[in-house]
Design brief:
The chain is an alpha/beta fold and 294 residues long. The chain folds into 2 domains: 176 residues, Ribonuclease H-like superfamily/Ribonuclease H (Nucleotidyltransferase, domain 5); 71 residues. Helix 5 runs parallel beside helix 6 and helix 7 runs antiparallel to helix 8. The chain is globular. It starts with a helix and ends in an 11-residue tail after the last helix.
Length: 294
């Protein structure tokens, strides 16, 4: 029943499947969820082989009794496909991201390169907790934000400009190439205060768009963590909302543990060597190879 719930079945559906009431299903599954080890404590105790590249994001989770969806903060180890540390919070902010990043001090690990969306609280917390980190602004999220700001879906005025921004951020560029394209955009659109503001912002934050330089084969989008978000969204589709903060926390903990202990099967290209391995196995030291938690 617990596995069914983690896979997205509501308590009503579980009750119908096993011939019990909805409340009985809730209590039985909750007791099983409580018996599981805490994901972060597993990482604190048994894992120490992390890569220096992470993607971070927040997924919003509906929970009864809260007017706004809660923020589930997590990050994927890019080269390991693991989810070592998680946090469920009432909101996504500098404070909650700082708490999440503080967990990295416990495992004595500090990412050197990270990709994230344009959330200012996230970036401020990362710089505060990881002074040496290079922060790469996700190309996709930034371009999407430009489209939203300029309302290109319903207004043709800035559609061509938006396409030019997409082209600028379509591939990884050397600094000289990036500057050349940005300067060309400036010459074409400097007389419009709206486009000038956007171009000035890009120039001011150029370091965030070129942070990938010096890191071999590293991402410039949050596609990997977005894939995890989509999978989580699929599992939550039939649950609708959690009964309480505590239940949401238990379910998310179980969901992440399941992902970390399931063998990878669909990795391609540079990640192909991960197939057949469990993410938790990859990040744990060999001295704990026979420990039941691993």
């Amino acid at each position: 029943m617990m596995k069914d719930h983690i896979n997205g079945l509501s308590f009503r559906a579980i009750g119908e499947r096993y011939g019990i009431s909805k409340s009985t299903a809730y209590h039985k599954v909750t007791e099983e969820l409580k018996n599981l080890p805490d994901n972060n404590k597993i990482t604190f105790t048994y894992c120490n082989r992390f890569s220096n590249v992470f993607e971070f994001d927040a997924k919003y989770i509906p929970v009864k009794g809260y007017p706004k969806d809660l923020a589930f903060l997590w990050g994927v180890d890019y080269w390991r496909h693991d989810l070592p540390l998680i946090l469920l919070a009432k909101a996504e902010s500098f404070r909650t991201w700082s708490t999440c990043f503080s967990y990295f001090r416990i495992i004595n690990h500090y990412p050197m390169y990270m990709v994230c969306d344009d959330h200012h609280g996230l970036k401020m917390a990362a710089r505060f907790k990881f002074p040496e980190v290079k922060i790469q602004t996700c190309y996709f999220h930034f371009s999407k934000g430009i489209k939203t700001e300029l309302r290109v879906a319903t207004d043709e005025t800035y559609k061509e400009f938006s396409k030019r921004i997409d082209d600028l951020l379509s591939i990884k560029r050397a600094t000289i190439d990036f500057d050349r394209k940005l300067w060309k955009l400036f010459n074409n659109y400097k007389d419009d205060p709206v486009t000038l503001k956007i171009l000035t912002d890009i120039e001011r934050r150029k370091e965030e768009f070129l942070a990938f330089q010096g890191f071999l084969k590293c991402p410039v989008t949050t596609n990997m963590i977005e894939g995890f978000n989509s999978h989580l969204e699929e599992r939550l589709k039939h649950i609708n909302s959690f009964q309480s903060f505590a239940h949401a926390k238990l379910w998310l903990n179980a969901y992440v543990l399941k992902r970390r202990t399931t063998k990878l099967t669909d990795c391609r290209g540079k990640f192909k060597k991960l197939n057949g391995k469990r993410p938790l196995e990859i990040e744990r030291p060999q001295t704990h190879a026979t420990h039941p938690c691993c």
